[in-house]
Write a structure and sequence with these properties.
globular; alpha/beta; MoPterin_dinucl-bd_dom; six-stranded mixed beta barrel; 21 helices; 25% helix; metal ion binding; seven-stranded mixed sheet; single chain; NADH dehydrogenase activity; 23% strand
């Protein structure tokens, strides 16, 4: 639903249409005023020049985003190294995929979120999903989990909450947040004990197994239960499901990875996958689910502090020489590795830190941990420029704000979670004075005297990206706009003349010897311990209707209906202990700060855990609470577990309107039904089981409709809304179809949905129907 409502933002009244500058230069307490592009760009270049002359080149920094197209991410990285000649660049993907990326690079020699096509998920006979609520955060992907289930596959969901996805699971494991590594090691212990390990695969395709096996002695089932809270019988059941399935898959996401030991946790699940012999087999493997629109491509082409295009290491002399040759500069001119995102933010305005910062496609005031410290550091800057579509919380702190184009107004490419490079085409020009970020970056480079190295034409930028990435780990050399169109996307790695690798690791891994690496990992306690003052565990996550910092989604009426105030989900026992009832205002407090939420008691969450969404800023900002402690390998902050206290806020309560519970529940109308045609112009209700009425107080969105036809004639399924045809679905003779319904509008309470069939008079047979809906 976030996708099909996104067009509402294109002409939103809050849209930035002209550059903004402070009325009094250098005084961020003075109001913004509209300005021309020349003034905005000149102020920015003057601030860059002044900072670098006084403090050195690294005093100017760039902070990018996983929502940038490949072209923009590439050009921003090049701008930092060639125009600014600074090492100070990183991006918000450091808060998202970095732990899984670090583990995959260490184990496989390459980081591609899913090293297999997404369709492989539907072929898994057993699937372990760790730390992801796909039904809410990526609803279109649920079709593959549903198909796997329909084929008899078993789904195991690891989540401290009974999420919408967990409700569909065969087994739901609810570990203490921050103990997923123990869970993975405990499952591997049981897999080895039961003789389920693929010893032939291990011997032929991996290294390091003996050391991992030696360490597993400490993860016997009773100890794992004591640490994680997961019963031994559930551990044994899941180990048996994974070990005996003909095909199995392990997928991790932010719930497992956003910890101070997130890289090791991802590695522990990779160890489990390798021991079972899963990577490289159809319908099997290990993968990590991307969290941003271009989370995969955004980390491949140079906006990370330690990377050059093609996923090359910036400290590799051969990589520097290759990229410098493409850029037409001396390799010695390229800076070295800079600081990671949180480290750069922590040093803003300090001696040796960044003094002038340019932010593209990121809202760090809401999305970074320990928000108050980040806000304090932004205020300490000499200069801040922000490129955004709206006046975000970060843009409100800026000296200069650039109005940028939206998705429908720009050309470029994105790389999805399965490594498929896709094309984005503009369908309209940006409104007002708004410009694409390629134009903004190139204009700044020209004013800095480095314009000869830059172009703002997306196709030309992509052609250069291809050359710069060629021969690298993420090789785009053989990807062209024309191939993307002709093939509906091209998988990387795809060298010049290559076909693109939809499924990786079938014969070898991307390591020097072609073998995957087992790595022994041990559990460490969370950086924050619970005590009498902070007795509970706080974890954060996403809601179906909101996205990231909420800069866009909180401006769409259909997405904020009933969710104008964020809620703190807690177990009823915990709520009663503090005299809290549904709808009460509560204050959550950690060792960094406090924030206000509305209480939502829910049986499906652990009694020692409180869950809050992170899409809001201000007094309800979850990241005012979160722990900035970093994973030593990935530099990922510990968003998912910290110690927290809760108290009821006395006095007037907020007026929310509507119900307080905003969880989502998948609904399925499905089965195999006989029919006898009455004529194509005489449709009728196929079966009473195919009638659904939206309950009072709920809104439902159709997600997909699948159908199969056993007879020798074409038939038609008709989705009816309150007796009126909503969608026709012709199905050929002995054929099947599957269509997305994501563009369909909200179905309000009381709406009746039915599935009718129309067939030639007298024709008989059976149809398979599977209608997926989400009730929120």
């Amino acid at each position: 639903m976030k996708g099909w409502t996104a067009a509402e933002l294109l002409d939103h009244p809050d849209r930035l249409l002209t550059p903004l500058v402070r009325t009094v230069p250098g005084d961020r307490g003075s109001p913004f005023r509209a300005a021309g592009w020349d003034e905005a760009l000149d102020r920015t270049v003057a601030a860059i020049t002044a900072a670098q002359e006084r403090y050195g080149r690294n005093s100017v920094g760039c902070f990018g985003g996983g929502g940038l197209t490949n072209e923009k991410a590439y050009l921003l990285g090049k701008f930092a190294r060639v125009a600014l000649r600074t090492a100070s660049i990183d991006y918000n993907g450091r808060f998202c995929m970095s732990s899984a990326a670090a583990a995959a690079n260490r184990a496989f020699g390459v980081d591609r979120g899913l090293p297999f096509p997404l369709a492989d998920v539907a072929r898994a006979q057993a699937l372990l999903l760790v730390g992801s609520n796909l039904a809410d955060t990526m609803p279109p992907a649920m079709q593959y989990l549903n198909e796997a289930r329909d084929r008899g596959g078993g789904l195991v969901v690891v989540d401290p909450r009974t999420s919408a996805t967990a409700k569909t699971a065969t087994v739901h494991l609810r570990p203490v947040p921050g103990t997923d590594l123990v869970l993975a090691n405990g499952l591997l212990h049981l897999v080895l004990r039961a003789g389920h390990a693929d010893l032939e695969y291990i011997a032929a395709r991996t290294t390091g197994f003996d050391e991992v096996r030696a360490g597993l002695a400490a993860y016997w089932p009773d100890r794992v239960e004591r640490i994680t809270g997961v019963p031994v019988e559930d551990l044994q059941r899941v180990a048996g499901m994974l070990g005996t399935a003909a095909s199995a898959m392990i997928l991790t996401a932010r719930g497992a990875e956003q910890h101070s030991q997130g890289s090791d946790t991802a590695q522990a699940f990779i160890n489990l996958a390798l021991a079972l012999g899963l990577p490289g087999r159809p319908g099997s493997g290990y993968g990590s689910i991307t969290g941003q629109g271009n989370g995969q491509g955004g980390r491949e082409h140079g906006q990370k502090a330690d990377q050059l295009p093609g996923y090359r290491r910036i400290d590799d002399p051969a990589a520097r020489a290759h990229v410098a040759a493409v850029w037409g500069v001396d390799p010695e001119e390229l800076p070295g590795a800079g600081l990671s995102a949180q480290e750069m933010l922590s040093g803003l305005g300090r001696d040796g830190g960044v003094r002038a910062l340019l932010v593209f496609a990121s809202n760090v005031v809401v999305s970074a941990p320990d928000r108050d410290r980040v806000l304090d550091r932004l205020c300490a800057l000499d200069f801040l420029a922000v490129s955004d579509m709206f006046l975000s919380e970060t843009a409100m702190e800026a000296d200069v704000v650039f109005p940028t184009a939206q998705w429908a107004e720009e050309e470029g490419t994105m790389t999805n979670l399965e490594g498929r490079v896709l094309r984005r085409r503009p369908v309209r020009v940006p409104p007002g004075e708004a410009r694409d970020d390629l134009r903004i970056i190139t204009a700044l480079a020209r004013r800095l005297g480095r314009g000869a190295y830059f172009t703002d034409d997306a196709r030309e930028v992509f052609q250069e990206l291809r050359r710069a990435s060629s021969g690298g780990v993420a090789d785009y050399g053989g990807v062209t706009y024309e191939r993307i169109e002709a093939e509906q996307g091209v998988f990387w790695p795809c060298p010049e003349g290559g076909t693109g690798a939809a499924r990786m690791f079938t014969e070898r891994f991307a390591t020097a010897d072609g073998r995957a690496r087992f790595v022994r990992v041990e559990h460490r306690d969370a950086t924050e311990r619970l005590d009498a003052e902070f007795p509970y565990v706080l974890t954060t996550g996403r809601l179906m209707r909101q996205y990231q910092s909420g800069t866009q989604t909180r401006r769409i009426a259909a997405l904020t209906r009933g969710e104008t105030v964020p809620r703190a989900e807690m177990h009823p026992d915990l709520a009663r202990r503090h005299g809290i009832r549904a709808g009460d205002a509560v204050e959550l407090r950690t060792r960094r700060g406090s924030a206000l939420f509305v209480a939502e008691p829910a049986d499906g969450i652990r009694p020692d855990t409180i869950f809050v969404p992170f899409h809001w800023g201000g007094e309800s900002g979850a990241n005012a609470l979160t722990d900035p402690s970093l994973d030593p390998l990935s530099r990922m902050p510990a968003f998912k577990a910290c110690a927290v206290a809760v108290r009821k806020v006395e006095g007037p309560q907020p007026q929310l309107g509507g119900r307080t519970h905003m969880d989502s529940t998948p609904r399925f109308l499905q089965g195999i039904f006989p029919f006898t045609g009455k004529g194509l112009d005489a449709p009728y209700l196929l079966a009473s089981e195919l009638r659904y009425v939206v309950p009072d107080g709920y809104v439902t969105q159709p997600v997909y409709l699948r159908g199969g036809n056993s007879c020798d004639e074409m038939v038609c399924l008709i989705l009816m809304r309150d007796g009126v045809p909503m969608r026709y679905l012709p199905i050929g003779a002995k054929d099947g179809v599957h269509v997305s319904l994501r563009v369909v509008e909200d179905l309000m309470a009381g709406t009746t949905i039915e599935v009718y069939v129309a067939a030639p008079d007298g024709v008989a047979g059976s149809v398979v129907v599977d209608l997926g809906l989400v009730e929120v």
